[in-house]
Each structure stands twice: as C-alpha cells, then as structure tokens.
C-alpha cells in the first residue's frame, strides 16, 4: 500500500543581518534598571576609579548612585534653583557642578556641603570641567563666557569671552593644562590658550553645539549638535569626518572600549556606536525615551543613560552580563561508574546494529486530507494562529486542494461565520507576491461558488466588498506600474532610434505604439475581472 504524501509547506527564509562581534558585545547587557526622577536628567558622569559611582544631575540636586546596587549613595542638594553638569575629577576625589544662579560649586562627593563656590558668571553655568593639572577648573556659561578658576585660592585665573551666544558644551584638553575647548549656540567651536587669554582655533560646526569631547591625546576633538557629529583635527582645524546617522538633535557624546568606540545619543531615542578607526556605525542601542545624557563606566561594565519623558526624567542603568560558573559538577565517583557501564556496551566486530526509527507524526491537516475531509482541513488552516504566524501552511493546503480539484467542494456550503476567515485571508494576502497566483485562483473559485447567493447574506456582501476594493486597488497600482514601464520604454526607444534616424525626425509613432500596447494590456486585464465583483462594487 502506498504511503500518504505529506503536504509540502514551503517556508520563505526571513532576511536577517549577520551578527558581528560588535553586535554581540553591545547586546550583552542585562535588562535595564530604570529610575524615575521629577525633572529631566541633564548630565550623567561615572567616577573614573573604583568604586564607579554614578553622578546623576537632575533638577536642584546631584544624586550619586552605587554602580552595582543602583541605590543612591549620596545626594548633593544645596542648589537654590538648578544644578548642571556634575562631573568627577579623574582621581575620583572631587566633583564639580554648575548652577542656575551662575555659581560653580566644588564638592567632596562624600559630603553634602560644597568645598568651594566660584562666583563670577552672570548667567546659568551648564558645563564645568577639571583642568588637566587638577588644581584648576573651567566653567562655561550662558553669559557667553568661559572662566578658568584656581581651586586653592578660589579665584579667577582668566576669562574667555569671544563667543556670541550661549556656551552649552566644553571641556579641558586632557593633554595640556593650558588648552580649553568650548562649543556655543553661535555654531562655533573654539580652542583657547589660557596663557594668552584668547582663542587659537575656531571651527564652524554648522548648528548649535550641544556636546563635545576631546580624545586623550588632545590631537582630535569631536563636536555634536543638530543632526551631525563632526570630528576635527586639533592642530589645523581640519574636518576629519562628518557623521549623520541620527534624525533628531544629538545631545551627548562618550568614549568607550578603551577609547576605541565613540558613542552618540540623540532625541531620536538611539545611541549610535562608531568605530573610531573608520567612523562607521557598528551597533545601535534603542531606548524608550529621548536621550539627554549618558556615561559609560571603564571596561564598559555599566551604561547609564539620562532621558526625558513627559516632563519627568528617567535614568537607565544597564550592567554587562557576567558568565555564571556552573552550579554543580558530576562527582568523580559518579563519572567513573558511568564510564565503566558504558564500556560494557561498546560495539564489537560482528554485532548487528539496529537503529531506532521514530515514526514521524502526521499533522492534523494532513490527516484530514488523507481522509478526504477537505472542508475540515480548510477550516483548520484558516485558524488565526496559523494564518498570522505560518501563512505558508495555509497556502500549501490551498495548493494541495487546487491540485486535487477539491477547492470548490471545500469552500462550498459555508455560512458567514466560517467564510469570513477565508475571505479575510484572501484579502490580506492577495498583494503578497509570494502567494498571489494561488490566492487569485482561490478567490476566483470562491466568487464562482457564492455568486448566486451573495445578496442573501449581508455579512457576505461586506466581506466581498472588501475583497473587491483590494483587487481594484491592486489593479490601479498595476496600471500605474505598466504606464511607467511604457513611458520608460518610450524614452529608451527614442534614445536608441536617434542614432539611426535622420536629424530633425522624431520616432513619435513608435513611442505612441509602445505606450498604447502597454495600456491596452492593462485594460484587457481589467475587463477580465469577474462580473460579480464589479456588481458588488456598484
């Protein structure tokens, strides 16, 4: 007796991108721990040495979080209006921050009271940084000036005031204690020498500068603002690279992976990871809200991201996954017993080996097809979980019923409730190029079977009207495509014929003939549409 031939369900391979080592590395973070704040997170910084405390500046306070527990270790709240840009010194002992009232405050992060308060700005100070020599700090203000302060004497060293708009970004050069960088809303980035008190380099970013950083060598700096990140040569001011991967304003920058990766965060809720050797995007991190600030711990152990959501702030902490050691191992005694038992069952020459063959289980729709239960098989593959997750199975059963000539008997005798899944599936998949040929054959049979009884059931009229609208939309699109093909062919024929026709004559007749041949084909196709569908549309 011949065995039943299973229904061949051909599944189309999904297009996938090959995961690179960088993709795997940047996906290897645990599920984020999210903390909600009352105001936006304007700055995040990580303590450079262990323990890597995380300073989160939000509203009138700076919260210092523990890296592992993500609990507040210390809260610095002695600000009258607002705090900005809380940043650790590279030795991890002190923390500097700007204030809404124009002051710059220096803290020991373990104590609530500030050690120094630098007064001199007349506008809010949104950014402050420690100078390379550790004995000075620099502040950048909305009063269009940058001021270098001496920590020990709590006095002003020099004032840098060549900008024409708010200064919202800036940093001290990590290679020299005399070089400062500032980015302003006047679209410029300036390099300053504190020994002369004036700028030695000025470059145009092209949009308001929101963030900037300098590479550890001091030879390259990066500015961000608008939708672009620009990389500059610090010696000659030459533009090295322009990165336009975000579609909203870029708000923050960071270096990661031992300064081999550049990170940019934006209001488009993405963080882009760039390879600094090629400045190509190697990975994208997605977040639930627009990003205002970010920081990453040494060794990429923790990524902290500050966001804004509906007027309130969100801080997200993501820790890198650590491979857990095996909980238990098999004892030597148990292993030796298992090995001794297995030795008794080694195959010897002359032994007959019988392979166990598991009987393959037949699917339910194949079992129904085997019993010639065509209507039941059709209803089974039209269940929602199959049509949504595995439409190829439904189409495979369609193909088998068409091959057997049993589609008409399978669709006949259905009421509105049982016919609805079939018409819904046809309407949804009739434009799918993978299945359109089979779907059109099934649609024609359904229309032929129910053409005489459609008007008796109002529910069926509604379903067939939807099918009609979908077919008309597809045919309208086909007409446009064919018309476009005809127009393209006219231009191609014209360009080819100009080389073979005398000067002053145009091959208009051939062009018109080609166009009308295409349009006649579409008109003929539309005339072949079943009359019952035309009547339903009316």
Automatic annotation (TrEMBL):
<feature type="domain" description="U3 small nucleolar RNA-associated protein 15 C-terminal">
    <location>
        <begin position="345"/>
        <end position="490"/>
    </location>
</feature>
<dbReference type="InterPro" id="IPR001680">
    <property type="entry name" value="WD40_rpt"/>
</dbReference>
<dbReference type="Pfam" id="PF00400">
    <property type="entry name" value="WD40"/>
</dbReference>
<dbReference type="InterPro" id="IPR036322">
    <property type="entry name" value="WD40_repeat_dom_sf"/>
</dbReference>
<comment type="function">
    <text>Ribosome biogenesis factor. Involved in nucleolar processing of pre-18S ribosomal RNA. Required for optimal pre-ribosomal RNA transcription by RNA polymerase I. Part of the small subunit (SSU) processome, first precursor of the small eukaryotic ribosomal subunit. During the assembly of the SSU processome in the nucleolus, many ribosome biogenesis factors, an RNA chaperone and ribosomal proteins associate with the nascent pre-rRNA and work in concert to generate RNA folding, modifications, rearrangements and cleavage as well as targeted degradation of pre-ribosomal RNA by the RNA exosome.</text>
</comment>
<keyword id="KW-0539">Nucleus</keyword>
<protein>
    <recommendedName>
        <fullName>U3 small nucleolar RNA-associated protein 15 homolog</fullName>
    </recommendedName>
</protein>
<feature type="repeat" description="WD">
    <location>
        <begin position="118"/>
        <end position="159"/>
    </location>
</feature>
<keyword id="KW-0677">Repeat</keyword>
<keyword id="KW-0853">WD repeat</keyword>
<dbReference type="InterPro" id="IPR019775">
    <property type="entry name" value="WD40_repeat_CS"/>
</dbReference>
<dbReference type="GO" id="GO:0005730">
    <property type="term" value="C:nucleolus"/>
</dbReference>
<dbReference type="InterPro" id="IPR020472">
    <property type="entry name" value="WD40_PAC1"/>
</dbReference>
<dbReference type="InterPro" id="IPR018983">
    <property type="entry name" value="U3_snoRNA-assocProt_15_C"/>
</dbReference>
<dbReference type="GO" id="GO:0006364">
    <property type="term" value="P:rRNA processing"/>
</dbReference>
<dbReference type="GO" id="GO:0045943">
    <property type="term" value="P:positive regulation of transcription by RNA polymerase I"/>
</dbReference>
<dbReference type="InterPro" id="IPR015943">
    <property type="entry name" value="WD40/YVTN_repeat-like_dom_sf"/>
</dbReference>
<dbReference type="Pfam" id="PF09384">
    <property type="entry name" value="UTP15_C"/>
</dbReference>
<feature type="repeat" description="WD">
    <location>
        <begin position="160"/>
        <end position="202"/>
    </location>
</feature>
<feature type="repeat" description="WD">
    <location>
        <begin position="243"/>
        <end position="284"/>
    </location>
</feature>
<keyword id="KW-0698">rRNA processing</keyword>
